[in-house]
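Following up on my earlier thread - several people asked me to post the actual chain instead of describing it. Fair enough. Here it is, all 182 residues.
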Amino acid sequence: MHVSSVISSSSGDLQRADKIILPGIGHFGRAISNLADLGLLDALNEAVLAKRTPVLGICLGMELMAKSSEEGDVPGLGWLNAETIRFDPPEGARFKVPHMGWNRINIRKPSLLMSGIDPSAEFYFAHSYHLKMSDDSDLLSETDYGISFPSAIEKDNIFGVQYHPEKSHDAGARLLRNFVDM
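Reply from S.P.:
Thanks for posting it. Predicted structure:
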């Protein structure tokens, strides 16, 4: 199956999209400010909350879905009852920040996004922050890195992954195909 995609900062493209991927590597505060400066906050809310267009946030893209973040003094999109917090490993711990490299996920509930993916698949992570969920019903998978943290979420048409499926070989390709096929 052929899938066409558009990289865009146009609110019109967001309104016409069948699916939206909100990628990201960078700073939470700057990302929200950039979305605001481009006039995309209202368009994203309209597409995702009103029209219920499926959205997949990747890494920072998922973190932006929270109400707030420790990184930047701006509110998040507020689509999830969560906040984005920095990893805080104990001094001398073997866990370094940022969390970089391969790690297993632990799938917590059935989901079309995870269809055909081994329940203990490994994905590639590169992040210093993670979600702190107030509502565990949105938790799709979690990962252990000194602490257990949400590595994927699902809430209605809103999906997010803390890892990078585009760098995660077969499991990542399968996840992206599952999202496209929803």
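The first strand starts at residue 20 and ends at 22. That should answer part of your original question.
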